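ok so i was messing around last nite and threw this chain in just to see what happens. nothing serious, just curious
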Amino acid sequence: MRLPADALLGEENRGFYQTMWQFQTERLIAAAVDVGRARVALELAVAYAGTRQAFGGPLAEKQAIRHRIADMATRVETARRLLYTTAWEVKSGGQPAAAISMCKLVAANTALSVADDALQIHGGYGYMQEYPVQRLWRDARVSRIVAGTDEIMREIIGREVIGKGGRE
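result:
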């Protein structure tokens, strides 16, 4: 299809580079999904630990479970704050490729680790399809691949940090 010259969007022969920024948008959205996924896994683990009776009382009364949940909550909050800070920077007109990659890397790994901990708290029930935690774990695992693998995120981060002399 032939179009007049005034129909050109952006710079001629630079279309791929212009669309590359959309990869960053996809990564930020993926990070938001992963933060939400991690939060749901945490909520499921807390609810289950509060109702599951074992060793003379609810799992939530066991120090090991409380500490695991504390670690899960800390990871979720860390990922959430990184997401919000990065989203604010993008909304303010920035194009923080390294920060977005950090956000995607942290959120994907948080979703997987929190879902894995939630599955552990659920015990054998965590593997059963009747419990949504098994689906959260499966979906979280693929998050480390889609929208750019962990290795690609580290490559982007590394190039940005080295290019700035170690200052992010």
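not much to say yet. The two ends are 44 Å apart (CA to CA).
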